[in-house]
Amino acid sequence: MSKLLVVFGATGQQGGSVIDYVLNDPDLSKKYALRGITRSASSETTKDLQKRGIEIVEADASDAKSIPAAVAGAHTVFIVTISIYDENLKTRELERIKQIADAAVATGAKFLIYSTCVAAERLHGFSVPAFDSKADCEQYIRTLPIKIPDRDTFAIYNFISPDAPLPLIDTLHDTGKYLGPMLVDPDRYAGRIFCYATAQWSYKQVAEIITRVTGKKTIYMQIPYEQWLSFLPPGYKDSISAMMQFIEKPGYFGPDTKEEVEWTVQQVREKLTTFEEFVEKHSEILFAQSE
């Protein structure tokens, strides 16, 4: 069965050259099925590609919603970006590369091939924004779990920031500990709200802790919002996405989440379960579906 090679910029010089080469190579043309990504499926160049048997998907790196369908099912993705030479060059290019690369990883792509440039400022002390922007994108791509040879790397996917704080609790073992102070001195705590959580950990910290405690490499992948929505069961999108957005800002318990959690913990008499301890107890559950 052919592997799917997705080519961005299919109607441009670089993408077009890749497509020509694969089509004209007797071995590669059998190994790979081709999908060309273009901003206009109605152009004459696009129509010529379709006549040659190339699947065409219309997508634009500036439109995050269009990216998941473009890379769906990809084995390998060739990415080329158009540089727009203004003050937003670097931020724009990195944002678009993240959208494409994250979606490609989320769909299970094994390889990303990116048309990059030399890191002029980092390596040679010359600030060349057109080069450095692509070099920054390359550095980002190199952090992603591409070409995983085995099942020893695991990923947590969400659309919120990797640094957004999440209040976590061992519900089964610790809920009763929070009720203890209320039962001992109900007058003191009458009308007070306890914000149950041992502490706050970000997704990035969660992945690092799981890696350290279990020895199984785990990373957090921030993916495009629309891609994340596609993973949810029917009927869950609105409620779950609203909850995650609220967790990121203003916070799970509101803008004073940090202070509220710290105050609540100070009231508890018993030791609470840390996330490290939770992982130690339940690592077999965390990886049960992936073994």
UniProtKB/TrEMBL annotation:
InterPro entries: NAD(P)-bd_dom_sf, NmrA-like, NmrA-like_oxidored. One of its GO terms (cellular component) is nucleus. Gene3D superfamilies: NAD(P)-binding Rossmann-like Domain. It holds the Pfam family NmrA. Residues 1-148, 154-279 form the NmrA-like domain. Keywords: NADP. Belongs to the NmrA-type oxidoreductase family. This is NmrA-like domain-containing protein.
